[in-house]
Amino acid sequence: MSNSTRSSPPPLPPYTGPGSPQDVPPLPGSSPLDPATLPEPIRDELLAPDPVAIDTSSDELKDGLNRCPKCGASDIRHKPGSDLLICLYCRNEWHGARVEEEFGLGIGLDELSGTVIASGARDIAADAASLMTFKCTGCGAEVTVNTDNAMTARCHWCRHVFGVNEQVDNGAVPDAVLPFHIRKDDAVARIRQFVDKRRFFALKAFKEQFTPENVVGVYLPYMIVDGKASADIAGKGEIQTRRYTKGSGDDKKTYYDADVYRVERHVDFTVDDLPLESSTERGNLDTRVNTNNIINTILPFDTKNAVKWNASYLSGFSSEKRNTDVQHLIPRMEDQLLSIARAQVEDSVERYGRGVRWEQERLDVHGTRWVSMYLPVWLYSYHQPGSNGGMLHYIAVNGRTGETMGSVPVQQWKLLLTAITVGTFLEGIALWIVGTSS
Amino acid sequence: MSDDSGLWLLLLGPAGATGLYWGLYRYYRNTDKSHAFERETVVDAKPVTGSDQKIGQITGTRETEIDGNNVQSYRKRVKRLESDTG
Ligand SMILES: [Zn+2]
Ligand SMILES: [Zn+2]
């Protein structure tokens, strides 16, 4: 019965529309709140610096094998903070081949035609098994890799490391992988900094259990799309011709005259490396039931530096499997191409000072190229108990750029109390003004 | 009338409380964030072409902008016309 005495928070914002991840996100650094007007502890939180994203660029890369090219050992790991592979037996280091050059992905955007699908982005076979078994050449034992969450496994008997490297038709093996650059301790520091800025109203249990050291490095599946398209957009725009007031004193009202135009725009464009989540779960950005929009926010990645698939890069990290085919992602790609087109034509309608109401839009996709890629993300998660299984909150760090975003569960009563207190204070001022002016 | 403007002022408390609640809520939960692909994707666009044709006039409106202004709401889809190329 304690629920009935507790004041309930305002309802969550809808899945679509203003304030949802389907709305155009605010510019970095912009905030709906003016810190200057807020109480000091809140102001300090808001003004504290954000985690800094670093810029990474990679050297040119050479060809890579799964066995050490020098000594033939199979115990190969990704060297943290680089795109290198390292042999744990002889400490030999080497690069994987960049897919950008290997597959010619950076060129020919303007000549794209039809739907080009890289081999790792082919449709997932319906009967694809998650478990793959290897017979160890060292000792004859059977080693199983569960491709739902891992791409490598070690033989318990002779320590050979097995990786899923052939592109079997189960959709588990992507075309390319972008290795982690941000090390774990760096990710931990960024997550700590992010949460330190959000402690005042954070859920008490979250603060008590906060252990950023539990962050997990995960390779998440994406489709990286190049496209060539044209868009036509039509609507109405208004230009103000006159502004005047009628009446006097408190009854004074402003009126406008305007010219109305029929506005049509056409734009031809190419996009390079548009990333789309290729796991159904990760692509669902409904903020009422999950916080996947947090992971979406840390896009983009420097996908130009991705290397040809090599399971050795995944040793020690977990991974999530793709479960969406190109066909299913086309509507989302087209939606994003239309949004990009609308952003592109904005400058051309500046003269319409009273704005433009776009009413019709059309997209012609001339060609697309799809590459399946694993992208590196550090994920810290906290499960907030509640109805319908509660909510899983993520704090995510881009494994390449360090861009950090998170969802911190809120102590509702404390936030409500503060809001009501400030509201009461403002109401007092309002009452005072009304009282003295009448 | 002074009564009118005074009553309007009384919304200051509730509006301030709601604004602060949502501002802070979003600061913690970031439900409004997503990948800004419109400005963070490498887009190579040819010059925009088009036409502008005057079709009418409005006189004496009190609205400060066109009804349904969506020039910056890139993700708000409007009626989609079929494409030639399918
Ligand atoms: Zn070696
Ligand atoms: Zn073995």
- The H-and-E topology of chain A, N to C, reads as HHEEEHEEEEEEHHEEHHEEHEEEH
What quaternary form is this? heterodimer
- Strand portion of chain B, in percent? 15-25%
Summing up helix and strand content along with how strands pair, one would put the structural category of chain A as alpha+beta
Which percent bin holds the helix content of chain B? 25-40%
The average pLDDT value of chain A, as a whole number, equals 84
In short:
With 438 residues, chain A is an alpha+beta fold. In chain A, 21% of the residues lie in helices and 30% in strands.
Structural notes for this entry:
The complex is a heterodimer of chains A (438) and B (86). Chain A has 438 residues and is of the alpha+beta class. Chain A has 9 helices and 16 strands. Chain A has helices spanning 2-5, 40-47, 99-102, 184-196, 204-209, 280-283, 292-297, 326-345, 412-437, and strands spanning 76-78, 84-87, 93-95, 114-117, 131-135, 142-146, 152-154, 161-163, 176-177, 216-246, 253-277, 307-308, 318-319, 356-384, 391-398, 404-406. In chain A, strands 4, 9, 10, 11, 12, 13, 14, 15 and 16 form a 9-stranded mixed beta sheet that branches. In chain A, strands 1-2-3 form a 3-stranded antiparallel beta sheet, with no helix packed on it. In chain A, strands 5-6 form a two-stranded antiparallel sheet. Chain B has 86 residues and is an alpha+beta fold. Chain B contains 3 helices and 3 strands; from the N terminus they run αααβββ. In chain B, 27% of the residues are buried. Classes of the chains: A alpha+beta (438), B alpha+beta (86). Chains A and B meet through β10, β11, α7, α8 and β14 of A and α1, α2, α3, β1 and β2 of B. β11 of chain A pairs antiparallel with β1 of chain B, so a sheet runs across the interface. The complex binds zinc ion (ZN) (2 copies). Residues 68, 70-71, 73, 87, 89-90, 92 of chain A line the site of one zinc ion.
List keywords for this structure.
heterodimer, A: 438 residues, alpha+beta, three-stranded antiparallel β-sheet, 9 helices, 16 strands, 30% strand, globular, disordered N terminus, B: 86 residues, 3 helices, 23% strand, flat, binds zinc ion
